[in-house]
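#struct-help
A.M.: can someone run this one for me? Single chain, 271 residues.
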Amino acid sequence: MENIGITNNQRIWESLFLSKDFSFERQISTDPVIIFIISGSMSLKINDNETFIVFSNEMFMAQYDNSYKITTLEQTHLLICNASLESWYTEQKWIEGVVLENEESYDYNIFYKLSLNKVFTQYLSLMNIYLEENIYSFNFYELKRWEMFFLLHYSYKKEELALFLRCILSNDIQFKKFVVTNFLNAGNVQNLAKIANYSTSGFIKKFKKSFKESPYKWMQKQKAKQISYEINRGIKSLKEISNEYNFSSYQHFSVFCKAQLGAPPTTILEK
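D.P.: on it. C-alpha cells below:
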C-alpha cells in the first residue's frame, strides 16, 4: 500500500495514471481533496470500514477527517485537486447558501459522489492538457481551482452540493479551519476555546453553529477516527498509541475504544 501525492498540499492539481490493482492510501489530514475519475474505476475503503466503488466520469471529496484506502479495479486516470479549507474562504457567501431544508433527516456520514456533467468534463480535459504541458504556475492553478468552485456552484443543485461538500460547509470556514488544525493538540474543549480567545460558553455556541454538534462530541469522534487509523496501520504498539493520545492508563484507552469504536483495541487489532 503506497502513500502518494494526494497528501501534498503544495500542489493544487495532480494527474495520475495508475495500473490495475494499484493501491494507495490517503491519511486523515487537515484538508480535503477532490478526486475526479477521468477513466477507469476504483474501490474506496473508508476508515477501514465500508467499501465503495467510484467509476469513470465521477468525482468525490476525500474528507479531511477520514482515511481512504484506494485500489484501482482497472487502468485508471485521476485528476486530483487540493481543496484546502482556506482555499474556500472567498466562497463563504455561496457556501452559506448551500443548505438542506430538512437537514436533520440527512445522514452526513454517508459516502457521496457526483457524476461529471458536460461542462465539468470539458473543463477537466483542459486541466489535463495544462498539466501535460508542465505549466508551472501556482497562481494559474489557483485561478483554475476558483473556476472549479464556480462550476460546482453553477452545475449542481444545492441538495447535491450540501452532501458533496458537507465537510467544508460552515458559516465561518476560517473558524472551522482553526478547529481542525488545533483540536488534537488542545486536548479538550476548554483549552481549544482558550487558544481561540473565546470563553468556553461562547466557543461552544459558535462551534455548534459551525459543526452542527457539540465540540466535545465532535472531538471525541475525531480522536476515535485517528486512533482507529493508527491501530489498523499496525505500525505502533497499542501502548504507544495510548501514550501518544495522552490516556492516563491503558485501561482508560481500552474503555475509550470500546465506547467510541465498539470494541477494545486488542479486538480491533486482531480484525
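A.M.: thanks! The longest helix spans residues 215-233.
D.P.: also worth noting: Residues 82 and 268 are 31 Å apart (CA to CA).
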